[in-house]
Amino acid sequence: MKLYGSSNSGNCLKTRWVAELMELPFEWIEIDTFSGETRTAEFLSINPAGQVPVAVLNDGRMLAQSNAIMLHLADGSALVPRDAYDRAKMFEWLFWEQYSHEPAIAVRIARRHFLKTPDEQLDPALLTKGHAALARMEKQLAETHFLVGAALTLADIALFAYTRNAHLGGYDLASYPAVNAWLSRVAGELRRGGATTVEGMGTTTP
Ligand SMILES: N[C@@H](CCC(=O)N[C@@H](CS)C(=O)NCC(=O)O)C(=O)O
Fold first, then answer.
1. Are residues 153 and 69 in the same domain?
2. Looking at ligand 1, which atom is closest to the CA of residue 98?
3. How far is the CA of 147 from the centre of ligand 1 (A)?
4. Mutate to test the pocket of ligand 1, among 6, 11, 46 (most ligand atoms within 8 A of CB)
5. Residue with CA closest to ligand 1 atom 15
6. Å from CA of 53 to ligand 1 middle
7. Confidence band of 199 (pLDDT split at 50, 70, 90)
8. Residues with CB under 6 A from ligand 1
9. Which of 47, 73, 99 is the last residue of a domain?
10. Is residue 203 part of a domain?
């Protein structure tokens, strides 16, 4: 399998972490999203949407969208609850992540940390929306160890990807103690499962 992605993108790292946890062999193809590498004819022939991450499976089929790739790679594993309600709750978080978390927190990280946009030029709605997302996570994680109860699921991996770097977007995580404790738990689970690049933040693209 080939995984096209940027090492500094939470969306891309989600797929890498799951491939590593599942012990699936893969070739990582680094794509620099800021220098137009997602817009070349060659890349668009792989993903017409012009985005990473992209998985090209061993049989040549392509799959895009980080959460879809994670779901495919983790199919049948403990990262996807067998219980129908728990599985649906995991999907609830995954859809929410793409609509209410990533578009605020990842975007603010991108503009502020990577593009060096001064705070006063950033859309104030990004801060409000991001804090609302963090508050929602805090409420859940004050009650349960992971987002869907007692065990790690893809929902945690999806939301870990950008929450761990929310401070780079100007979100003070000090007021979210349950989120902080959960970040450590998820990082520990990922490391124990053999995932790499769990720490730190890269320097090129979100
Ligand atoms: N919803 C998509 C978002 C993908 C996305 O925004 N990818 C960014 C990097 S994080 C990208 O490829 N940007 C380059 C571009 O749009 O040209 C996912 O979860 O995979």
1. no
2. 1
3. 24
4. 11
5. 51
6. 7
7. confident
8. 9, 11, 33, 38-39, 50-53, 65-67, 98, 206
9. 73
10. no
Range of the domain at 34: 2-73
Q: Are residues 28 and 88 in the same domain?
A: no
Nearest CA to ligand 1 atom 1: 65
Does the pLDDT of residue 203 top 50, yes or no? no
pLDDT exceeds 80 at position 128? yes
pLDDT at site 115: 93
Rounded Cα–Cα distance for residues 168 and 171 (Å): 7
pTM: 0.96
How far is 77 from 74, CA to CA, in rounded Å?
Answer: 5
pLDDT at 200: 59
What pLDDT shows up at residue 41? 98
According to the 3-state scheme, what is the secondary structure of 152-192? CCHHHHHHHHHHCCHHHHCCCHHHCHHHHHHHHHHHHHHHH
Which of 2, 16, 8 is CA-nearest to residue 63? 2
Which of 156 and 206 is assigned the larger pLDDT? 156
Tokens 């090492």, located at residue = 7
Structure confidence at residue 36 (pLDDT): 94
